[in-house]
Task: structure prediction
Amino acid sequence: MGYLDDLNPEQREAVEHVHGPLLVLAGAGSGKTRVLTVRIAHLVLEHGVDPASLLAVTFTNKAAGEMRERVRRLLGAEPAGIWIGTFHSMGARLLRRHAAYLGWSSNFSIFDAEQAVREVKRVMERRNISVKHWHPRAVHAAISSAKNQLISPEEYAATARDAFSRVVAAVYPEYEAALKEQNAVDFDDLLVKPVELFLAHDALLQQYRARFHFILVDEYQDTNHAQYRFLELLAREHGNIMAVGDDDQSIYGWRGADIRNILDFEKDFPDARIIRLERNYRSTGRILEAANRVIAQNVRRKGKTLRPMAGPGERITRVEALDEQDEAEWIASEIESRLVEDTGRSLRDFVVLYRTNAQSRALEEAFRRHDLPYQIVGGTRFYERREIMDVLAYLRLIANPRDAGAFERVVNYPRRGIGDLTKTRLMQWAAERGLTPLEAAARARECEALSSTGAGALVKFADLITRFRELAARTPVGELLELLVGEIGLLTALGEEGPEGAERIENVRELIAGAHEFDAGLDLARLAGDDDLPPDASPLDLFLQKVTLITDVDRHDPEARAVTLMTLHNAKGLEFPVVFISGLEDGLFPLARAYDEPDELEEERRLFYVGITRAKEKLYLTYARTRRRGAELLSCTPSSFLQPIPEDLLEVRLTPRAERVRRARSGYGRGETRWAPSWGGDSDDDSGSWDGGLVLDYSDAQDVPRFIKGERVRHPQFGSGTIRELTGFGRDLKAVIDFDDVGRKKVIVRYANLQKEL
Result:
């Protein structure tokens, strides 16, 4: 059992646990993936467990791939029958096998978030619900939240009280019906439908309980209610569930993750054993000390202390800048300096983290000025580029001829003489006769409202899709794609778009190359006898499923010769030698609304903790005195999250511009500007204070009343409503309010004359 030799005592204890529930509280950089994979090998090699009885679930394709590869190395071969994958891929696999139980066919389409929002918009337009007053994206978000809490349309409608909720209640059932009509599911369904399947068909649940006798789940703190219920249903009888997670890294509450799942593990599984992995193999001592001090401020946590296996390392550098441009310029210059001074340091060693995507603009401009190559994770994604989405829409329609969204996207692309009026008349005719758009196109000559030219073009298009459906049954995806792109003349059409078209052509060729790689991987899986490939799913179905389920983290290229720019949320699970966390100002990080919600503030603090623990060797914490948001220039206060970090861990610096301003103004008296000591005053004071920094004195900010999200208010013009979002600080506080009679409005609080409703 040489694979156990390199484990520390706590890791070994977790690996050697066999029966019964186990919660492994794994701190950042503590080797949790190793524990998971070695335990799989230990169960198979030492205890004779059939690999087919193992279910290992995680959140990203990257993590699942790494887990699968490590298990393969430990066992010497791919274990037959084991299920290792993400929650979404597991859900898709189950649904492909058993879709008929729920009224779908196995070749269903998976709608991504953008496709789902478009479908919500179509439903709203059909019901004459204003998409200006009620944004389809907000309605979809509410539906998504309900689904992940396993709240049905009927249950949601029963609790709808305000105007926005009533709109959601009207759209929700029709949206669900529209998906089913198109033989489609959305991302949420991949989590929700397996639970519905198990609850409705006990024999099926018993079948999978008997198969998966050992369940291992990674990142348990990020599970939502649907994921928790899925695991609980499978593990309830045998109790052999190993949950690995870190409550201090629970950062996805905004998308439904419930920290109570990990905090209450012992209540759900009363005989649970708890093991803490606190030895950190990633970061230096000073970085970990800062992380420990920050997270200790949270109340809702299990409690653990990261212990460094490395030396103390460099001090953490805290940097004050004049504004966001100055901050970005300093970061770019510092990276240039370190590349020169640090032997062996490369661009890929650096990451700049920020709270919101909007912060990347100033950074990108600075990096371009300095000629520093960079990659953005979470920016414009390959599979969201227009030309790629067009090709994928063709493939979706070929795989699932009931996909109305795909039909609308490509029926006249490249142009084939089917105008908007022709399309509208066809869709109306199809709806009147209960036909799918593609069925209607095949019979377009029967529609008297269409011109003979338009009808002929539609019939020709339907014939094209029918031919490629027949081809798809016997042709690898890469070859099918090449034939399709040639048949529709896509490269010719793109070539007519000028220089931008040339780049789009290369993107299409890259997609074709990716499809050929997929084919090769699928062939290898079949040669290896992988019995977990869904029996009825075609290669095209599996390819579309693969590209739909790719996440932002999966797009990060660790070998790219570029600095990485990404949000803190996207950095989860990654590590870098040198980390910059920018924009550390109250109101930005933490977000302003968090101060009115203790749970939100704790989640924001956990997000900062995640950012700190991405750093292996060097950490920079930067903030600006002023920051422009929209047309407004706001005075900023350094983030309260910085306060617990001891001064002896820090090297405190000013950017050159900030230093020059301080020297120039250090002799001035009080007026429109003032100097304040470090961390002066209460952290909730909107006027702010800086360590030797220039701030604007908002002396009347205290006149703005305090409101909280969810509070009922009354506006003199718009009437009563519910506060949905608060942004900004003091005099700059803005509220997004769902008014009962006029819908959603954004107001500046100090001008709105809002009154609280008692």
Notes: The two ends are 68 Å apart (CA to CA). The CA atoms of residues 55 and 458 lie 47 Å apart. The first strand starts at residue 22 and ends at 26. The mean pLDDT is 87.
